[in-house]
Specification:
With about 80 residues, the protein is an alpha+beta fold. About 35% of the residues lie in helices and about 10% in strands. The protein has 3 helices and 2 strands. Strands 1-2 form a two-stranded parallel ribbon. Helix 1 crosses helix 2.
């Protein structure tokens, strides 16, 4: 999943899932940490200002990369126009 989509997590989630998770010996904390280190998951500052779509979404001119739409730009399972 992390290879197919841009995955962003707030710093607070990273602290809870990775830092605290490692302290408790949770194996999934190590998996998350490796994905962050490999830049498959990006930790973002989730301050008061929401991130604009252009800051987190891939270039829309690159067809089929990082999108969740299917053929014709429709969501999978969506009815035809």
């Amino acid at each position: 999943m992390v290879r197919a989509f841009a995955v962003l997590i707030p710093e607070a989630v990273y602290r809870e899932a990775v830092v605290e998770g490692k302290a408790h010996g949770y194996e999934d904390a190590l998996v998350l940490e490796r994905n962050v280190q490999a830049r498959r998951i990006r930790v973002v500052n989730a301050g008061d200002e929401p991130l604009g779509a252009e800051a987190v979404l891939p270039d829309r001119n690159r067809r089929g990369h990082g999108t969740s739409t299917g053929p014709g730009g429709r969501l999978p399972g969506a009815p035809s126009p």
